[in-house]
Amino acid sequence: MGRLRRIGISFGAAAVLATASLSLLYWADRTYPPPLEAARDVSTEILDRDGQLLRAFAIREGLWRLETTVDDVDPNLLRMLIAYEDRRYKSHSGVDMLALGRAAWQLAANGRIVSGASTLSMQVARLIEPRRERSLTAKLVQIARAIQIERRLSKTEILNLYLTHAPYGGNLEGVRAASLAWFGKEPKRLSTAEAALLVALPQLPERRRPDRHRDNALEARKRVLERVRESEVVDPAEVALALNAALPTARRQLPALAPHLAEAARRKAPNVRLHQTTILRPVQERLEKVAFEAGRKLDPKVSLALLMADATTGEIVAEVGAADYFDASRSGWIDMTRAERSPGSALKPFIYGIAFEQGLVAQETIVEDRPADFFGYRPKNFDMQYQGDVSIREALQLSLNVPAVRLLDAVGPSRLMVRLRHAGIRLKLPPNEAPGLAIALGGAGITLKDLVQLYAGLANREQPVRLGDGIRDMAGLIDEQPLFEPAAAWTVADALGAVLPPMGSPPAGIAYKTGTSYGYRDAWSVGYDGRYVLGVWIGRPDNAAVPGISGYKTAAPVLFEAFAKSGLAGTALPRAPTGANRIPASELPQSLRRFSIDPNGLISVSARERPPRIIYPLEGSILELGKGPDGEALPVVMKMQAGRAPFRWLVDGKPMSESTRRRTGEWRPLGAGQSTLTVIDAEGRAATVNVFIRN
Question: Which of 160, 277, 416, 587 has the fewest CB atoms lying closer than 10 Å?
């Protein structure tokens, strides 16, 4: 009995000790859990519509740590990683006892560390809770942490942590950041050589950097390749090719596309890690390049902005807020797609659209382009010249100011404002001012984004669209009537689609309009095809004047280049809807032959246009030619009024040059004597004067 009692007491004591030990371990595990929450501190990412990375933000320590999962990397890399780092990863519980025993025996036999015993779980423990000292105590803590991690996470989740936190030199952490920095691509598809380098770098990331220590990187990659060949993880033929593959020679910048939109996304939801946008990365890259190259040709303080949207959905597919985000001289950090500026003539198509819709004019209706006084407001054309009688189509294509103001006077500025509000846009007027005729020439503020939205209403004849902010799904159709009736929208597009591209620009099959604000502060160009709308703004962010810029010469070439390089051009403008056509002037009803307003403010018509008339030189004039600085005779200036463009000038019955739309011209007499000057307009009507030239 005594012996049995002693055995019973021993077993009882052992059970109590085991229970106490287990309780202690359980208490320690619960009281001191591994810092897994801190391990989830990763970079915020801005993604395009298809999930491609546009931009990432470094975490607080300045590290690029992009969250990476096993689904994000090439399966070949995972096989190589496990074969090289932890062959029994799938079978152990955090600690590989065989590897640990082998390492201890080698240490005792050789007096130094011959091989390591760290499992991937132990490496994760070290990565998420780094310790500076390398001691037996630190190793024991690492082992304990590995066991704790294995109890809490699956093997896949542990791999995800390693792939996210493994160091790759400098401020790079994780396989995705490393692959983007060293190879310029996501790690979804890697060559054997690339995968081997990514497996080798984390052991000594600074001493194996391929841009600084090429020989070390080559040797480390070679060891990985030889190990995986022995493990039969990779085909020997692929290993042979990988051994001779070139190493990357420089670290690349991580993607930094759509920087203004990315900053806005982070401000809008600072606690969100992934921000899905409507941007198309390939289009964004191309338009940013177009903007950068165009900016190099401009004054160092001049910036530009581009915005492209899908007129059928309202989604922004590319947004460039500055020529160069990092250029301080251009204030590149300012998003000029959201800045309110004067649109110049860019709003004229919407005045014409209302006039077409109300039946006030047709494309071939004649309107006067002559100096006019609208109760003290005296608009002038951009070139300070006047065309006389022109068709409505020509007035819109040439962006003549006086005809546009005449139409707005008839339509009413308030009606234009209401129509634009129905399309979701509110113009910014000067403080305490009511809508006036100056709106036709840019006397109101609008952003590039809102201007593109208006033109999307021209491109989408079915229903107005609201452009989203590019970040959240706010884009879509507005529950309103179309911006214009389909026939009016087509008529505007038919006129704008016939405007020639700027010199040297490729045809793009788009309808487009330009604008230049007062004082040469802003140059605009907006164009659209059957689906996409693209807007361009050029100017100084500080709103200072930029002498010489204009919508046609400065912004329109960028518009055509951007459309051509976007990769989205090619959707034809819609065909004419039922009831829409271009009626020749001779077939117009009397009420649409000419548009004018009588002194009472009523729209009046005239069945006949006035014939051309030469107002200088006058009939019977005796002209004495002046001399220039070089002694050559100065030309005689010729001026005419009325008539319908284009015009052809003749001297003594012989044409002087090609036909012209201008009502002024120059004539260099061949000698003294009598001459007959004649001008013929588009209707075949002529005016003639006889003059005498005296030397």
Answer: 587
